[in-house]
Design brief:
Number of helices: 18
Helix content: 25-40%
Number of domains: 3
CATH architecture of the largest domain: 3-Layer(bba) Sandwich
Radius of gyration: 23 Å
Shape: globular
Largest sheet: 5 strands, parallel
Distance between the termini: 48 Å
Number of strands: 22
Structural class: alpha/beta
CATH class of the largest domain: Alpha Beta
CATH topology of the largest domain: FAD/NAD(P)-binding domain
Oligomer: single chain
CATH superfamily of the largest domain: FAD/NAD(P)-binding domain
Strand order of the largest sheet: 7-6-5-8-22
Length: 492
């Protein structure tokens, strides 16, 4: 695979990125692909490593190791190296319905499991993947695939996120008639409103949705189950139902003052800004606007980082992000050995941008917000915090202890809460009579069927909050099982 000595001859190259001070002036994707020649060189770095770990797709102690959808990465790396782009696209589509999404927003556990990554920077798998699919669209190699025959069987999918879209694509190509119900005004789920434009431009999402429509999938938008259409009507009109509603119940901050005006859940902020951007280029006044204000994001994950990047584009006066954990190590540690994701310190796009503006990384580590103080009008004006230390107890568990004397007051006019997700919103599964356990829809690990015959579940709603690539895997898997279920019904 690749050039036999390529990994010794060529260095890893990153995608081109607009300089931070330039890209914060717009809402476009900040990364663009390398030239074809550079990408062929990157493909040449793929080693003939005998047993590739990059596509094994397993979980080790709760973290992904290798590509969850088992992309045959060495094969399309080799095809790109040889300049066979169209064949590389065909090979990529064998396992991945939406490479244009994963090539932009996936954290690339495949690269963490790259054999070359043991001693050197890993092969630029994600960059190559994105380039293959983008080149496919640019050259009109990707056209609607209209199923030759229809089975006459109908499937309803509730939710149009990556799991729902993958399931719809698979079942449609098998000849079933698929209708996707989405309560929002645009299809795509978290791809549309949960990930900001600078990471995933919405034209990319809409391009794929339009293609799926041309292939025969029906999208019913602005439709809430139980309100705009009843579960009885869905069960009467469809032979199977798949619940792909995501794990969208956000975890709320429960401290004094958390109900003050100006305190918002992170996804509400990101959604409002994206909707306003798409509807009016931010001129309709409907988005939360932090221009000239002090902003604090509570929660140290990717959603919090997206809030940071959004706030800096709105020209916030200052932006800080609070996390309860210590700063990650800069190198792989013994508790995350290869081929696991090393979970190391990275200067993500958002932090590069704030550093360029404010002169420092906006992240504060081992910090706990004790209370929020509002002004006389009920609007947040400051946060009170204390530093913590992480201690390993005698029982083997870690504990966080407050450090006396480290109290601090932070000015803030807006606070965005990004402390994770509790799990699935229970309204839809309850209306279908489906069991929810541990904040997830209870569905079989083998066939994805719930306690109600003919109703299945997949994606974050079933497995909990996870990566887009895991959602695609779930969507493909549930589609295969629904197909078997439908076949069995016909045979009866």
């Amino acid at each position: 695979m690749g050039k036999p000595t390529g990994f010794m001859e060529f260095k890893r190259e990153k995608m081109k990125e607009q300089p931070p001070l330039e890209r914060i002036k717009n809402w476009n994707e900040y990364a663009t692909r390398l030239t074809d020649e550079q990408l062929q060189t990157q493909g040449a770095r793929c080693m003939d490593c005998g047993t590739p770990f990059c596509h094994m797709g397993i979980e080790i102690r709760g973290t992904a190791a290798g590509c969850p959808i088992q992309n045959v990465i060495p094969e399309w790396n080799d095809l790109v190296y040889k300049g066979n782009w169209k064949e590389a696209l065909d090979r990529l589509h064998m396992t991945n319905n939406f490479p244009e999404f994963t090539g932009r927003v996936c954290p690339a556990p495949c690269e963490a499991s790259c054999t070359l990554g043991i001693t050197d920077p890993a092969v630029a798998i994600k960059s190559i993947e994105r380039s293959i699919i983008d080149k496919g669209f640019e050259n009109n190699w990707i056209t609607p695939r209209i199923p030759a025959n229809r089975t006459g069987l109908k499937v309803a999918i509730i939710g149009s996120g990556p799991a729902g879209l993958a399931a719809a694509d698979q079942l449609n190509q098998l000849g079933h008639s698929v209708t996707v119900y989405e309560r929002d005004d645009r299809a795509g789920g978290l791809l549309m409103y949960g990930i900001p434009n600078m990471k995933l431009e919405k034209e990319v999402v809409e391009r794929r949705i339009n293609l799926l429509r041309q292939e025969g999938i029906d999208f019913v938008l602005n439709t809430e189950i139980g309100k705009d259409i009843s579960t009885e009507e869905i069960k009467e009109n469809f032979d199977a139902v798949i619940l792909c509603t995501g794990a969208q119940k956000q975890r709320e901050l429960r401290i004094d003052g958390s109900n003050s005006e100006g305190v918002h859940l992170a996804m509400d902020y990101l959604t409002d800004v994206t909707k306003s951007l798409l509807n009016s280029n931010l001129t309709d006044g409907k988005a939360i606007n932090v221009k000239g204000k002090d902003v604090i994001v509570i929660g140290g994950g990717d959603t919090g980082a997206d809030c940071v990047a959004t706030a800096i584009r709105q020209k916030a006066r200052s932006v800080y992000q609070f996390g309860k954990h210590p700063m990650l190590p800069t190198t792989r540690m013994p508790d995350t050995p290869w081929p696991q994701d090393p979970n190391i310190y990275k200067l993500d796009y958002a932090y590069e941008e704030v550093e360029a503006v404010q002169g420092g990384d906006p992240r504060e580590y081992l910090i706990q917000t004790k209370k929020i103080i509002a002004d006389k009008n009920g609007h947040v004006k400051e946060l009170h915090t204390i530093q913590m230390e992480k201690i390993l107890g005698e029982d083997g568990f870690y504990y966080f202890n407050e450090i006396p004397g480290t109290e601090k007051i932070w000015p803030a006019k807006y606070v965005f809460v990004a402390i994770g997700f509790e799990g699935v919103e229970k309204t839809v599964p309850e209306q279908f009579g489906v069991k929810v356990q541990n904040n997830r829809i209870k569905a079989s690990q083998t066939d994805f069927e719930t306690n109600v015959p003919g109703i299945f579940a997949a994606g974050d709603a079933r497995r909990g909050q996870s990566l887009v690539v895991w959602a695609i895997k779930e969507g493909r898997a549930v589609a295969a099982n629904v197909h078997h279920y439908l076949e069995a019904r016909v045979l009866k």
